[in-house]
Amino acid sequence: MEARFYTDCMDAQAREREVLREITTHSAEETIAFGRTLAELLTPPKLVLLRGDLGAGKTTLVKGIAAAFAAAAEEDVTSPTFTLVHEYRGPRANLYHIDLYRIDTPRQLETLGLDDLRSDNSILLIEWGEKFPRLVRERDVEIALERAGEYERRIEVRG
Length: 159
Ligand SMILES: Nc1ncnc2c1ncn2[C@@H]1O[C@H](COP(=O)(O)OP(=O)(O)OP(=O)(O)O)[C@@H](O)[C@H]1O
Ligand SMILES: [Mg+2]
Known about the structure:
Order of helices and strands: HEHEHEEHHEHEE
Distance between the termini: 28 Å
Bound molecules: adenosine-5'-triphosphate, magnesium ion
Strand content: 25-35%
Strand order of the largest sheet: 1-7-6-2-5-4-3
Structural class: alpha/beta
Largest sheet: 7 strands, mixed
Helix content: 25-40%
């Protein structure tokens, strides 16, 4: 009971985390450019949750982040929809782009072995991670993307 209460408090604290950056972009290119600016914030090690509906721009944002780390060219960053984890190694960090859309149970999550990917120089960028309370608790940064129009996306970074 006490442990449960403690967990709830932690979640409440997490929700109230400080807004580090916010922007409304008007094209995929602008979202990529914004992603590039986030590299300075995302020094490893980090666990980052990318929240937002299908097509909100989560993968698009990762293109900018991976490019800024010189870990991948924008066009080489594609959705890890089927492979679930894409790895991009850069000189300053190893990026893991993870898509949990098709993962439904904590047991399935365990078999992915995300803990093995965590190290001093790793950054985990996780789409649909908010489905799992453990990841919500362990996240360092949360980036929420919201569709505000056909090309408008409201992006909020909390840490
Ligand atoms: N301002 C914008 N920022 C980002 N993407 C935009 C913007 N305007 C239009 N788009 C388009 O929206 C789509 C975003 O797709 P993306 O794969 O990045 O979404 P996602 O959030 O990763 O979705 P999924 O949950 O399906 O993986 C792309 O087709 C992109 O061109
Ligand atoms: Mg995606």
